[in-house]
TrEMBL record, chain A:
GO-annotated molecular function: GTP binding; GTPase activity
Name listed for the protein in its UniProt record: Signal recognition particle receptor subunit beta
Organism: Furculomyces boomerangus
Gene3D superfamilies: P-loop containing nucleotide triphosphate hydrolases
Any one biological process term the GO annotation gives: protein localization to Golgi apparatus
TrEMBL record, chain B:
Location(s) in or outside the cell: Endoplasmic reticulum membrane
Organism annotation: Furculomyces boomerangus
Gene Ontology biological process terms in this record: intracellular protein transport; SRP-dependent cotranslational protein targeting to membrane
Matching InterPro entries: AAA+_ATPase (IPR003593), Longin-like_dom_sf (IPR011012), P-loop_NTPase (IPR027417), Sig_recog_particle_rcpt_asu_N (IPR007222), Signal_recog_particl_SRP54_hlx (IPR013822), SRP/SRP_N (IPR036225), SRP54_GTPase_dom (IPR000897), SRP54_N_sf (IPR042101)
Region called Disordered, residue ranges: 195-224
Compositional bias segments (type: Basic and acidic residues): 212-224
Listed name of the protein: SRP54-type proteins GTP-binding domain-containing protein
Domain SRP54-type proteins GTP-binding: 598-611
Organism lineage string: Eukaryota, Fungi, Fungi incertae sedis, Zoopagomycota, Kickxellomycotina
Keywords noted in UniProt: Endoplasmic reticulum, GTP-binding, Membrane, Nucleotide-binding, Receptor
Gene Ontology CC: signal recognition particle receptor complex
Length: 252, 626
């Protein structure tokens, strides 16, 4: 009889514990207690305007193939092993859609982020440098990127295109535009819910001096790449090894 | 026929595609952008330029299927094709898709060999369409099959014949109902005889016809002329007393049923006077009726005993362990969410359409172990709200002013529009203050030539602003008194601003109700004559359902009354009186959803400094919190 009683007690305790866990798990996220404690910080983000080649780069890392892509609706995210020479590193690679309404999602990934690839279409930069710069400004001034000095690689993609321009020219163009943006953005009105905090008032670079990427605490690299495959020509791959080594450098 | 078919992940990787002709991928990206930007797409069709696109998504596997074809072709089978391709593809490659094992590194190719299946499906879809088309084209419906036939003389005669023969059949077994049926028949026959009296000549052919129809054999005909005959009533009668003929036998079987369902002890008590006392149902002595009552009783009981169990069952049900969400699972929580939004002052139909889009996003999603449905809805809702509120264009007005000044060397023009008393002039003065703080030269054009005191009010503002602002900046009022045409005043003001080197011209207009046609016409004239850089709609944050009407009517008026090819709509919104609404910030969502345009500023008080930018995250938070 005694054993039976103990059995009943254990059983009821188990049921209560189970119910408590399930209920608590909804109310409070317990994942950081169980399992998620030692979560590695190995995120790399791929950002950029629509149609600049983000998903192609993501798919290249994932499948080592140049794949045909179309406009993304959702985030591509996966833990991917990146090989270079004799090294292998696991990277949590995330490709955020470039659509202006979906861009903001990158903020959710910043806590585990070790580096940002900002993809630019070198053949269209003459037309869309304003939009590129605005997006880049938003990335650079987001709190975590600024405070944790997350390194940024500006990837000048589609270098195979005849109309594309060099990375150094792109750099000058973006710096010039960021210089303008810095002045107008800091003069914009405070938002309604700030309660007097000045967290958003990040000033990029040095006051009273023209903006340069050297002035900001983040490391900024420029990598020229091309991931082009077409039926009639052999695939053109430029800069993919530099890209891989940049990724591996970020995580070591 | 079909131009292009693509199967891709929602992340944008094309898994399989087939191009029948070469087309640029422009229409696809347009479709996807519109899917992202609009929250509600009713029918799964989208057209752009000369292309029409049908699409289907599989949320479970994160896939999208798109078919592109020429709009003029009007292909009706595409819907079925997309659906069947989706079914086939998901069915064939389920394991590959779940494991995301899309491509083979060695062969450099996709793991899908979908070409033959697709061709088959496409062929069969085309074939069935062709068959149904030719069938439809060659064989119109027989006249005898149509409803109209019943109303003709021949038709009604035949019907009478049918009815009579039916009656004869039934009279053999059931004599009770005869009299009623006969009465109906008689009146009907009489009516037809009266009609036939006039043209007896056609009688012969009629009789021939009826003979023919008799050969066809009679079919049961349901009358739709409002009268109910006994046969029909029989069909409708679902009670246990349906088969009266072998009553005794029937009663026996009924009794057996009851014995199986409940034991006699648990039945109610039958009083000495034969009244059966059970619950609130007072029944009569009739045996049949009691048996039906018993059935009711049993039902009641089963639901009673099940009560406790279903409670616990419900708890586990809401956990929804490892199942795929269907639309019916989501109905209730989504409805709750919509109600919550309405409580936050979101316009009712907007809340509903947001609910629908969230639902569409979640249907087919697999729920993880021990997850509540609501825990899935919350982030989906948050994402949707954020997506709606996120502006689709830059809101950096200072940069725009710089650009216009640098490139075109003319002042940047802003027109403030809105209904009466929302604070157009007040917010104009606040915007002016902010521009002056940024060392810009501002000209205010007083185009409210209707309300008395409007010009004087602006004059006071200008005097105050001049006193408040740094010395080197410049603010002036351009006015031409009352009763003049506002469009010409605005035109003069812009010209004056251009020649005198102002950076910005702010145009104040008279408040007008959205239904006042002459005033709306005047507004659209002002806009089309002056082509301002931005048309700013000033709206109260207090407004509820009315916001939808105001904005759509303003937009409509601007579109309707403007010359073709120059149509403009509202470019941005200022939300005034934002300090008065606490967390009921629904108007912000309503207005952005209706127009798709950003909220440029919010007005939060009476002083010049009470103009703020909008913080989307805090709006989303206040919309979602209880």
């Amino acid at each position: 009889m005694n054993y039976f009683e103990i059995f009943i007690w254990v059983l009821s305790f188990a049921i209560v514990a189970f119910l408590l866990f399930t209920v608590l798990n909804h109310r409070v996220d317990l994942s950081f207690v169980f399992g998620g404690a030692g979560k590695k910080k190995n995120g790399i983000l791929i950002l950029g305007l629509p149609d600049s080649g983000k998903t192609t780069i993501w798919a290249w890392f994932r499948y080592t193939l140049v794949l045909p892509t179309q406009t993304s609706m959702k985030v591509n995210e996966e833990e991917i092993p990146v090989h270079l020479m004799d090294k292998t590193v696991n990277v949590f690679l995330t490709d955020i859609p470039g659509n202006i309404k979906l861009r903001h999602q990158f903020i959710q990934y910043l806590p585990i982020c070790k580096g940002i690839m900002f993809v630019v279409d070198s053949s269209k930069i003459d037309e869309n440098y304003q939009e590129v710069s605005e997006y880049l400004y938003d990335v650079l001034t987001s709190t975590q990127v600024f405070e944790q000095k997350i390194p940024i690689a500006i990837i000048c993609n589609k270098r195979d295109d005849e109309k594309s321009i060099k990375g150094t020219e792109i750099k000058l163009k973006i710096e010039d535009e960021l210089n303008h943006l810095r002045s107008t953005r800091t003069l914009a009105l405070d938002s309604h819910d700030d309660n007097g905090s000045y967290k958003d008032d990040i000033y990029l670079g040095i006051q009273d001096e023209k903006f340069e990427f050297l002035h900001i605490p983040n490391q900024v690299a420029f990598i020229e790449t091309s991931f082009q495959s077409s039926l009639d020509k052999s695939p053109v791959l430029i800069g993919h090894s530099e890209l891989s080594s940049w990724v591996i450098d970020r995580l070591e | 026929m079909l131009d292009y078919f693509v199967i891709a992940t929602q992340g944008g990787i094309i898994l399989w595609s087939k191009a029948f002709v070469t087309i640029p991928d422009l229409p696809i990206s347009k479709l996807i952008n519109s899917l992202i930007e609009t929250t509600s797409i009713e029918n799964q069709r989208f057209s752009y330029n000369s292309y029409q696109m049908n699409w289907a998504v599989s949320n479970e596997l994160g896939l999208i299927f798109i078919a592109v074809y020429q709009k003029i072709l009007q292909l009706t089978y595409i819907d079925d094709l997309v659906y069947s391709v989706k079914k086939k593809f998901v069915g064939d490659y389920k394991t590959l898709l779940v494991n995301k094992d899309f491509f083979d590194k060695k062969t450099q190719k996709a793991n899908f060999d979908f070409e033959p299946s697709f061709t088959k499906l496409y062929k069969s879809a085309e074939q069935t369409d062709l068959v149904s088309k030719t069938y439809k084209a060659e064989k119109p419906r027989n006249f005898e099959d149509s409803k109209k036939f019943q109303k003709t003389l021949v038709g009604s005669k035949q019907a009478i014949k049918d009815l009579t023969s039916q009656k004869n059949d039934s009279s053999a077994t059931n004599s009770e109902f005869d009299s009623d049926d006969m009465a109906i028949l008689k009146t009907r026959k009489k009516g037809i005889q009266m009609r036939t009296f006039e043209n007896k000549k056609s009688k012969k052919t009629n009789s021939n016809n009826t003979d023919n129809t008799e050969k066809k054999g009679k079919s049961k005909r349901i009358w739709d002329d409002g009268t109910v005959n006994k046969e029909y009533m029989k069909d409708l009668d679902f009670s246990s007393s349906k088969n009266k003929e072998n009553t005794t036998e029937n009663e026996k079987t009924d009794m057996v049923d009851v014995d199986q369902l409940v034991d006699q002890h648990s039945l109610g008590v039958r009083g000495s006077d034969g009244v059966y006392q059970v619950a609130s149902i007072g029944s009569t002595e009739d045996g049949n009726e009691i048996s039906s009552d018993d059935n009711l009783d049993v039902k009641d009981k089963s639901s009673n005993t099940g009560w406790g169990a279903t409670r616990i069952g419900n708890f586990f049900k809401t956990l929804a362990n490892g199942k795929v969400l269907t639309s019916s699972d989501l109905n209730e929580p989504i409805a709750k969410m919509c109600e919550h939004l309405i409580n936050k002052n979101v316009a009712a139909n907007i809340a509903r359409s947001i609910g629908e889009s969230v639902k569409k996003e979640l249907v087919g999603v697999k729920v993880g172990g021990m997850q509540k449905i609501s825990s899935l809805i919350y982030p989906a809702m948050e994402n949707t709200l954020r997506r709606i509120l996120t502006p689709s264009t830059s809101t950096d007005m200072l940069r725009d002013i710089q650009q216009v000044h640098k490139k075109e060397n003319r002042p940047y023009t802003l027109v403030f529009v809105g209904v009466n008393g929302v604070g157009k002039s007040t917010n104009l003065s606040k915007v002016c203050f902010w521009l002056l703080q940024n060392n810009l030269r501002v000209l205010i054009a007083a185009c409210d030539t209707f309300r008395s005191g409007a010009v004087e009010q602006l004059r006071v503002h200008v005097r105050n602003l001049r006193a408040l602002s740094p010395d080197d900046c410049k603010v002036d009022l351009f006015e031409r008194g009352y009763g003049k045409d506002s469009a010409t005043i605005a035109k003069e003001a812009i010209n004056y601003g251009e020649t005198n080197g102002y950076d910005v011209v702010l145009i104040d207009t008279a408040g007008r109700m959205q239904d006042n046609e002459p005033l709306m016409r005047a507004l659209s004239k002002l806009v089309s004559v002056n082509k301002p850089d931005k048309i700013v709609f000033v709206g109260e944050a207090l407004v509820g359902n009315e916001a939808v009407q105001q904005l759509t009517k303003f937009n409509q008026a601007l579109l309707n009354y403007s010359p073709p090819n120059e149509s403009r709509v509202i470019d941005g919104i200022i939300l005034s009186k934002f300090d008065t609404i606490d967390d009921k910030v629904g108007a912000a969502l309503t207005m952005t959803h209706v127009t798709g345009k950003p909220i440029l500023f919010v007005g939060t008080g009476q002083t010049y400094t009470d103009l703020k930018g909008i913080k989307i995250s805090s709006i989303v938070q206040s919309l979602l919190k209880d």
